[in-house]
Amino acid sequence: MTETASGSVARGGKKPRKGLKMKRIFTKPGVHPYDEITWERRDVVMTNWRDGSINFEQRGVEFPEFWSVNAANIVTTKYFRGAVGTPQREWSLKQLVDRVVGMYTKTAVEHGYFATDEDAEIFDHELKYALAHQVFAFNSPVWFNVGTQSPQQVSACFILSVDDQMESILEWYKEEGVIFKGGSGSGINLSRIRSSKELLSSGGTASGPVSFMRGADASAGTIKSGGATRRAAKMVVLDVDHPDIEEFIETKAREEDKIRALRDAGYDMDLGGKDIVSVQYQNANNSVRVSDEFMNAVEKGEKFGLRARLTGEVIEEVDAQDLFRKMAKAAWECADPGIQYDGTINDWHTSPETGRITASNPCSEYVHLDNSSCNLASINLLKFLKDDNSFDIANFVKLTELIITAMDVSITFADFPTEKIGETTRAYRQLGIGYANLGALLMATGHAYDSDGGRAVAGTITSLMTGVSYRRSAELAGAVGAYEGYARNAEPHKRVMRKHAAANDNLRTVGIMDSKIHTEASKQWSECLKLGEKNGYRNAQASLLAPTGTIGLMMDCDTTGIEPDLALVKFKKLVGGGSMQIVNQTIPRALKQMRYQQEQIEAIVEYIAEHGHVVDAPGLKHEHYEVFDCAMGERAIAPMGHVRMMAATQPFLSGAISKTVNLPESATIDDIEQVYLEGWKLGLKALAVYRDNCKVGQPLSAGGKKEEAKTTEAAAGEPEVKVIEVNRPTRRRMPNQRPSTTTRFTVGGAKGYMTASSYPDDGLGEVFLKMSKQGSTLAGVMDAFSVAISIGLQYGVPLETYMSKFVNMRFEPAGMTDDPDIRMATSVMDYIFRRLALDHLPFDERAALGIFSAAERAAQQRGEDPAPLHESVDREILAQSAPIEAAKPEPAAEPAPGRELTLESHQRFTADAPLCMTCGTKMRPAGSCYVCEGCGSTSGCS
Questions:
Q1: Which residues are catalytically annotated?
Q2: Can you give the residue ranges of every domain in the chain?
C-alpha cells in the first residue's frame, strides 16, 4: 500500500504538501524497464479496401516481440505522431511511451505529487513497464495529444448542457462541433428546452427539442464526413416527463421507415451512400431518462404526468405502460432509444450540491455533472492471472494505485475544448478507471459468464478496483488536496462511499478466487472510509466500464470491457501479411483448469476450430458447455445473462457501464420491455439493447404493394366477374452455342466455380455451380440447385426475384471472399447472386438492392455519380486484373480478416453492423459502440 510522506516540493509558492511514497511493482532498481524487453523491427503496410492500393506504409517500426501484428499496426497508424517519411515521425513504441509518460512524470514532480526524486523515478519506470507490457492503456486522446504541440486533451468523454434560449442552443451546436472536430464524443440532455406544446413569450408556439436535434444532427454528419479522426459520436437524452417525449421516442423509428421506403424506391441508402444524408437523426444515440416515479407507474399501470418546462405543472397525462411500450417498440424497430435510470444515477451521485446528473457521454458509461469531461484508462485483467490460475491481488492493487495517480496528474496539465468544461473538470477531477478482458479471464478460469461464480468474480474485482481507487484518491487528497468542489459535497460524497462499502459487505462469494479478492476489497474499503474521513477525496468520480475499443486491440485483449467473448475462433494476423485461423488461447487453459487430459484438450480444440462451437465436442462434458458460451452463436448467452452481469458490477462503479444487450432477431417487444424493467429493478444506471438485424439490411419485399392493391380493390367495390384465360409460361430454351462466363471464387475458405450462360440476344439463362468432387452430397445438391435456377430463368423468372430471395442469406461457409467487388459474403448463395447481379443487372436495379462494384463504391466516396461505371469495359478490366493479382507470388499486403469475419461465419450475426469508414471492413460491437479490428477505428469512446 502506498504511503504519504512530507515532501520538499512546493507548488506555486504555497506551503509544501506531503508527497507520495511509491513502491515498485514490476521493475527493479537500477534497471530500465525497456532493457528487459526483446525488441524487433517490423514493416507496417496497410492497403486500400477499394482498389488494393497502399494507403499507409512505415517500415522498420520497433515493438516488443510479444506484441501482435494487429496491435503494432494499430499503434503505428493511429498513435505515432509526425508526418510519415520525415525524421520527425515516431518509429518506436519507446518514443510513444516516453512522450506520454514524460509529460506525466514532469507534471507530477512540478506539482508536488512525490516525496522524493526516487519516488518520481519509480512512477516513471512503472508506467513505462505497464504500458509496454500491455498491462493497461490510457484512452486514445492521451496517445494522440500528450507530449505533442497539439492541445493536451486527455479526455474522451464529454457532457454538455443547453438552456431554453436560442443563444444557448447555438452555443450547443458550436461546442459539439469543436468536440467532434477533435475526434471525441459528447452527450447532452435537452429537457430544459420548452416543448412544442408550450408557448413562447411572444405568443407563438415553441419548436421543441426534437426540431433542434435536426440542426445538431446535420452538424455532426457534416463534421463526420469532413475527415475527423473517427466518426462523430453523440448522445441525446430527454426526460420521460417532457411533453415531447413520444415524438422523441419515435423519431428514429420513423426515419428507419423512411430509409426502407427510399431504398425500395431505388435510392442508395447504404452506409456512406449518397442518399443516406437525406435521412435525419442518424448521428446520435438517443436515450430516455426515466424516473423512479415513472417506473413505479409502469408497474402499477397508472397514469403519468408530462410537465411544462418553465412552470413544472402537469399539462398532459399519459398511460405509463403505453409510453413504456412505445419505448420498447421503437428499440425493437431500430435499437433506439436506450434507457437511463435517473433515480439510481442520482442516488449514487457524489456531488449533488453542485447539480444533478442529467446526461451521459455517447456510450453511457460516464455520468456526472453538466459541462464536464472524464479521461479513461483500462486494465488488462488477463495479465493478473497467474500460472496456477490464481488472481494476482497484490499487483492488481499496486497497479490501480499507479493508474489513479497518473490519471489525476493528467487533469493538472490537460487542455479542454471549452472553458466551462475545463473549469468543471479541474474542480471535480473525474476519472474513469476500468478494465478489459473480463470475458477471457472468466473463461480461462472455468467460470461461465452467466453464472453465480462468474458474477462473483466480476463483482469482487470491480469492488476491489474501485475501493483501491478511492482509497488512493483519499491519499492524493492528503498529498495535494481534495477536489475544489469537495467542501460543499463532503457529506453526500462520504454517503456514497459508505453505499459502495455496504454493497461490498453484501456481496456473496462462491469460490476460492472471488473469496480471496473479496477479503482484500473489504480491507481497501475500510481503509478508504478512514482516509476519506480524514483527508477528503481528490476525485469526485473514480471508476466506470468503457467499451475499450481501440485500446483493447492495443493491449491484445480477447474481450472488451465487461463483454463476454464474441467467438471461440478468430483470425490472427501474420508478419508479412496474411492471416491464420486460431482457436482462442483461453480455451486450452480453461480445459486444463477443468482437469481435462492433454489428448482430450487437443481433440476439443480441433473440433472447435472446425465447427466454431463446443456442442458435441468429443469428450467435453455437457455441464462444461456454459463456460464457452459467447455473445452470439450456437450457444449464445441469454439477454438477461448480460443484464445480470451488469447488475453484479454496477454497485461498485462510480459511473455506469457501456454495454449493449444483444437480442436475437426473433426477440419480441415484450422481451425488450422485460430487459428495461429488470435493469431498473437490479439497480443499473443505463442500458441499451440491439435486436439482430433490426436496422435496414436488405430491400423490402413487395408485401406493402400487395396490401395497397387489396385496399384499392376494396375501395372500388366488388369487382366485375370475368372469365380470365390464364397464359401458362413457356420455356425459352438455350441455343446450343451461347456466350458464358466462368468465375472461380472463394467464400470463407471454400472454393468453387460458377459458369453463367446468356442468350445471344440478351439475358441470363443458365447457371451451373461446382464446389466439391463429383459424386459427393454437396456436388449433388449444387447440381440440383443449378438446374432449378436455370429452368426458372428459362421460364421467365426475373433475375431480380432470385436476388431478393438469396442475397443476405446466411449459412456456412461465409466470410472473406477473393472477389474485389464483394469483400464479404454471408453465404455461398449470397456471393453467387451478388456476382450475378453485378454481371447481369443494370445499375439502377442493383442500386435498389444495395449491390455495387468496388469502382462504384469508390466513386460514391468521391462524391461522383457511379452509374456510368457500369460499362462492360470496366467489368472486363476488373475481371482481368483479379487473376493477375492472384497469380503474383508475393501479393501486396491486405488487411487481414479480423475476428468479425469468423463471427460472420460461425455466429452469423451483425449483418447490419457498420462498415469501418477507414478500411472498409465490418466492425464488431464494443460496449455500446463498434470497433474495427482491422485498423482500430471506433464509433465512440476508446
A1: 361, 363, 365
A2: 1-133, 740-898
